[in-house]
Every structure is written in C-alpha cells, then in structure tokens.
C-alpha cells in the first residue's frame, strides 16, 4: 500500500473501469443490455475528478502494488464532518489480501468524521467489507427509459444556477446530508448543468448530465425535489437514467413512474452515523 501520486491517476482509472466492468458482467440479468467499458469522455471526467481529489484529499487516496504493478486503488474525501468513499477497485484476480488493507488505508482519512457515505455495487465481497467497516447498507434503485413528455407538469421557478448560489447550495447540503459540498459543486458543474429553486419557503438543486441524466439532487422538501427532477427529465434526449434512488426517496419513484420510466434494483447506499439523506439523489462518487 502506498499513497496515490499524480502519475498513478490514469492507471487507477483503468483499474476502476476494468473492475467495474467485471462486476457489471457478473451481475447482468436476463434482458439487460450487455455492459460496456467506460467510454472515453467518462474516463476523462474520472481522471479530472480524481486529480482534483488528489489535490484536496491526498491522505484519502491510495494504491496497491504487487510485483511492481499497480493492481488496486481507492479514493476518499472529507467534507466538514462527512467522510465519503469515492472509488474503490481491485483488478480481478488480485482481490484476495488487497481489498481490506486498501479500504483500511482510506478509512484513516475518516478519523474525526461523525458521518460516512459510500455507494456500493452488489458484489458480495464489497458488501462484506462495508458491513465490517460499520456501514448500514440500503438497497438502491435506478430508473431508466424514455420520458413521456405529455406527463411533464408546469415547472415554474426553476432556473439556471449562478456562482452566487453556491453558499445557498452548501447550506442546503448541510441540512440534508449533514455537510456542505464546498469545492465539489465546482466539480459537478464541470459535468452537468445546475438547475435551482430558490423560493422563499423552499430551495433545491439538480445537476443534469448528458441527455437529461440526473447526477445529483438535493432539496428542502419532496415537492421541490419532484419539481427539480421533472426539470431534469424535461431535458431528456432519448434514453435517460436516474440512479441512486433509495427507499427514503419514494417521491423520486413516483416522478419516475409518472414519467414512464422503468425501475430496477442496483447496488446499495452505505451510511455510517446517519440515515439515508432525503430528499436527495446522491452522486455515485462525490455522494
């Protein structure tokens, strides 16, 4: 085990892409589309995000070498009193004896944090590690399909975010998940458009990625959250995806089903020292 260095980032991306592809292949169900390796645009975004995390959270980023070859990686971050596991991957054939010390190294970065969050696949080995580390696991759902535009309601009060909204967004994050995002809002803004609601009685935001896919969402109440999710879906161009829906966010299921999307279970949200945030749809890496 050794701390991740800038020259490790591209290799770490390849490790994560290969490991996650193998997990997706193993979990593929009848009728599912064949999993594909992470496309080049997403690979570059992963690299850019990880380089940023290495700058802000170097002590939470590690790699594992075997016989001079890097075979595992982990990145994590601290935001106020919240610790987040961003990415954790080991190449197939090297999991035995590598995964636990890698995760333990990243967990050192969580000392003093009151809360923790992570997003897990359904891989039984990952599930066991996270349970052993003290995380409660909550099943997640993902909604996919083409949006029924005839069902889209009026979306008054939703607007583009501006730099002046950042303090409001951080305050909302503290209310919903117990800690602000800080610099992570800038990372999210590089990968998607930020839409916000800032009424007198309510507020919220959603980051909308390519084709209307939802990257992250938080709001003061379910009604505002639903309005923002509809705003994201209204931008859909073809197939859309709304991932990371937990049972605590039934409002999102209702919106997705009204929009004509289909629902399936996929992975877990892991939390420690907190309940699953709501109204909230987390980002897979920055949570």
Automatic annotation (TrEMBL):
InterPro entries attached to this UniProt entry: Acyl_CoA_acyltransferase, GNAT_dom
Listed PROSITE patterns: GNAT
Single GO MF descriptor: acyltransferase activity, transferring groups other than amino-acyl groups
The N-acetyltransferase domain, residue ranges: 1-165
Pfam families, sorted: Acetyltransf_7 (PF13508)
Name by which UniProt lists this protein: Unannotated protein
Organism of origin: freshwater metagenome
């Amino acid at each position: 085990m050794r701390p991740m260095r800038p020259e490790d980032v591209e290799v770490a991306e390849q490790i994560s892409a290969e490991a996650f592809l193998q997990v997706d292949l193993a979990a593929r169900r009848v009728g599912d589309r064949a999993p594909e390796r992470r496309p080049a645009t997403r690979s570059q975004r992963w690299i850019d995000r990880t380089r940023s995390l290495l700058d802000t959270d170097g002590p939470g980023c590690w790699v594992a070498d075997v016989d001079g070859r890097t075979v595992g990686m982990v990145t994590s971050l601290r935001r106020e009193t919240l610790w987040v596991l961003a990415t954790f991957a080991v190449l197939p054939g090297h999991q035995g004896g590598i995964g636990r010390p890698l995760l333990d190294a990243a967990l050192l970065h969580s000392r003093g944090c009151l809360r923790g969050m992570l997003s897990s696949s359904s891989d039984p080995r990952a599930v066991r590690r996270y349970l052993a580390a003290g995380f409660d696991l909550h099943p997640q759902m993902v909604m996919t399909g083409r949006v029924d535009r005839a069902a889209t309601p009026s979306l008054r009060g939703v607007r583009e975010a501006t730099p002046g909204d950042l303090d409001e967004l951080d305050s909302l994050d503290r209310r919903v998940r117990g800690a602000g995002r800080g610099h992570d809002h800038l990372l999210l803004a590089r990968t998607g458009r930020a839409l916000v609601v800032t009424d007198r009685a309510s507020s919220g935001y959603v980051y909308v990625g390519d084709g209307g896919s939802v990257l992250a969402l938080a709001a003061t109440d379910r009604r505002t959250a639903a309005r923002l999710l509809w705003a994201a879906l209204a931008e859909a161009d073809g197939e859309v995806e709304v991932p990371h829906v937990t049972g605590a966010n039934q409002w999102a299921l209702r919106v997705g089903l009204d929009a004509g999307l289909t629902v399936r279970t996929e992975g877990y949200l892991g939390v420690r020292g907190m309940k699953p945030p709501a109204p909230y749809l987390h980002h897979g890496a920055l949570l």
